[in-house]
Amino acid sequence: DSGVTQTPKHLITATGQRVTLRCSPRSGDLSVYWYQQSLDQGLQFLIQYYNGEERAKGNILERFSAQQFPDLHSELNLSSLELGDSALYFCASSVGPTGGYEQYFGPGTRLTVT
Amino acid sequence: GENVEQHPSTLSVQEGDSAVIKCTYSDSASNYFPWYKQELGKGPQLIIDIRSNVGEKKDQRIAVTLNKTAKHFSLHITETQPEDSAVYFCAARTGGGADGLTFGKGTHLIIQP
After folding, report:
1. Which residues 73-92 of B have a C-beta within 8 angstroms of A?
2. Cβ of B34 under 8 Å from any chain A Cβ?
3. Is A28 exposed, middle or buried (0-12, 13-18, 19+ CB in 10 A)?
4. How many CB atoms lie within 10 A of CB B53?
């Protein structure tokens, strides 16, 4: 158990809908990273927050957004969902502000768009 | 941006033998290289990492080597056990504007009894 929690575990929704995924980092960690894992694209970095501020952006679509709250939990919002958004979404947390610190992954949220 | 290539995609070894997984990276500015193990239905688990100022690191049966000149790094697992069966991912961190990890495509390691 990494200490990172994610809810929900599974999410099934229809195209065009909007969903919110939630992540709580390990105690003491200030950074939260979001990754998408799919069969064709593999594991891809989406976005990072550090202590409430956006810190780095990867391959995140404009339809996707995230935020980190004062209690350090983070939410990833996915809107106008398409079939191709079906994937596993992981968050990871680390203690420091940059990617050079150890990142610990949560168990993931499996999103199915029908 | 960074590109990480990982080989092989599948590796089958006899229990007790050694396994080696290799990765190459493209950006010479990359300075942090973690390895993750992912079991079915679970999130990636950090098993070992190495930074660019170090050539080798060991933790019990697991070791990682880094060759900065050739831009490749490898994971070595000795005395493999059934519980080592999983998908292993290498990753690299470059920094700059996109400071997340860039992952390889993964290696499915199968330990044959």
Report:
1. 89, 91
2. yes
3. exposed
4. 8
CA distance to partner chain B, nearest, from residue A61 (Å): 14
Tell me how far apart the alpha carbons of residues B62 and B64 are, in angstroms, rounded to a whole number: 7
- What pLDDT score was predicted for residue B14? 98
DSSP B46: E
Residue range B39-86, pLDDT digits in tens = 999 999 999 999 988 899 999 999 999 999 999 999 999 999 999 999
CA distance B107 to B113: 19
Is A19 at the interface with chain B, CB within 8 A? no
Residue with tokens 């790094």: B73
Chain B residues whose CB is inside 8 A of the A109 CB are none
Report the alpha-carbon distance of residue A12 to residue A65 in Å, rounded. 19
A5 touching chain B per CB within 8 A = no
Tokens of A70: 């004062």
* Neighboring chain B residues of A45 at a CB cutoff of 8 Å: 98, 100-102
**How many angstroms separate the CA atoms of A114 and A94, rounded?**
33
Which position has the token pair 């593999």? A42
What are the backbone angles phi and psi of residue B79, rounded to the nearest 5°? 45, 55
Tell me the pLDDT of chain B averaged across its residues.
94
Q: How far is CA A37 from its chain centroid?
A: 10
Which residue in the set B44, B45, B95 is minimally distant from A99, CB to CB?
Answer: B95
**Do residues A111 and A11 make contact, with C-beta atoms less than 8 angstroms apart?**
yes
